[in-house]
From TrEMBL:
Protein name per UniProt: Putative NADH:flavin oxidoreductase
Organism in which the protein naturally occurs: Cupriavidus taiwanensis
Upper classification of the organism: Bacteria, Pseudomonadati, Pseudomonadota, Betaproteobacteria, Burkholderiales
Domain NADH:flavin oxidoreductase/NADH oxidase N-terminal: 15-345
GO MF annotation list: FMN binding; oxidoreductase activity
Keywords of this entry: Flavoprotein, Oxidoreductase, Plasmid
Transmembrane regions: none
């Protein structure tokens, strides 16, 4: 009997029938470089295209706001709410495809964590609970978060419809798929967590009820995007405003959530932690990827979190990951796949690239102009 070969970062998997040239993914990263109207720019095209020229198999966009109500989170954030925005994204997707990559649109509703919204002066979330922490200065925020209004039934359904409409526009723009942003403390995550969701109606209570908005959104997005488009969902414990947060339900809650996501019909689950290989909970040794694999044995899983070192990235495949996503590692090395495959060392991430604001810089674009040639 032949022993199966261990998975490699340079295998060629597929998601929902869409082939990828390797297992390496660019993680979604907020870059606040769109126009005031939420239209992608030429700088964004060069930025995303550089990752594809550097050999990444799949690129997940920054969070894209999904409606003209409460979804927008940051000034300079791109949207997918109209034909002009979709047309701007088409140029980016075309550039990625031309360089041999695939691209996913991450669909995001900021909810109570909104710092800037050209459509509204107030914020809304599951409950009138002021978010912990302070606004993110890297994205133009200052001071405490505003106290949100509790969304009513019509506003919740409007948010779901916004995700669906954005998924249709993403398909029109040529994206290979969409990722539903259920992580990092934004709206869907706010509904999932019992410290931000104090509702007593059908959208709150036990974890099964708190998952309802996420599952309704998945159903609506799948129906809008179609069965031949990749649909994924991103989940985390940590929030952008509460970095050390862990689920109080622990491993049991993780099993419930991941099992429900696996049964929902998505094509992949994207889990992110600060250090992806570390134990997810204090009372066990398993990482969040390992918890996800146990609860969703047949689902593709993307691992994200401090995996820029090639050995760390490869080790996540042994923990059950299907794909490995790099954020800061990709910023420092837009040619990471080509560089690693050629045996060249990876560059260290320099935090100055995100200062004083996290917009795309000229120096970054210069790095992306001539990445190492992709050799495979």
């Amino acid at each position: 009997m032949t022993t199966p070969a261990a998975p490699s970062l340079f295998d060629t998997p597929a998601l929902n029938g869409v082939p990828l040239r390797n297992r390496l993914v660019v993680a979604p990263m907020t870059r606040i470089s769109a126009t005031d109207a939420g239209v992608p720019t030429a700088a964004m095209c060069r930025y995303y295209g550089g990752f594809a020229r550097g050999g990444f198999g799949l690129i997940v966009s920054e969070g894209i706001y999904t409606d003209r109500a409460y979804a927008q989170g940051y000034a300079g954030q791109p949207g997918l709410t109209d034909a002009q925005q979709a047309q701007g994204w088409r140029g980016i997707v075309d550039a990625v495809h031309h360089a041999g990559g695939r691209m996913i649109a991450q669909l995001m509703h900021a909810g109570a964590l909104s710092q800037a919204n050209r459509f509204r002066d107030d914020t809304a979330g599951p409950s009138a609970v002021q978010p912990r922490g302070r606004q993110l200065t890297l994205y133009g925020g200052t001071g405490a978060y505003r106290m949100p209004r509790a969304m009513d039934q019509a506003e919740i359904l409007q948010a779901v419809d916004g995700f669906a409409q954005a998924a249709r526009l993403a398909r029109d723009a040529g994206f290979d798929g969409v990722e539903i942003h259920g992580a990092n403390g934004y709206l869907l995550d706010q509904f999932l967590n019992n410290h931000t969701n104090l509702r007593q109606d059908g959208w709150g209570g036990a974890i099964a009820q708190r998952m309802r908005l996420l599952l309704e959104t998945i159903r609506a997005v799948r129906a809008a995007a179609g069965n031949d488009v990749i649909v994924g969902v991103r989940i985390s414990q940590a929030k952008v405003n509460d970095f050390t947060y862990q689920w109080p339900e622990g491993a049991d809650g993780a099993a419930t959530l991941f099992g429900a996501i696996a049964a929902s019909g998505v094509d992949y689950l994207h889990v992110t932690e600060h250090e992806a290989w570390q134990p997810a909970f204090a009372d066990g040794a398993a990482s969040l990827v390992q918890h996800a694999r146990r609860a969703a044995p047949g689902l593709a899983i993307v691992a994200n979190g401090s995996l820029a070192e090639p050995e760390r990235a490869a080790a996540m495949l042994a923990q059950g990951a299907t794909l490995v996503a790099l954020g800061r590692g990709a910023l420092a090395n837009p040619d990471w796949p080509a560089r690693v495959r050629a045996g060249r060392p990876v560059r260290r991430f320099d935090a100055a690239v995100l200062a004083p604001l996290a917009g795309i810089k000229d120096a970054e674009l210069a790095l992306r102009e001539a990445p190492a040639a992709w050799a495979g």
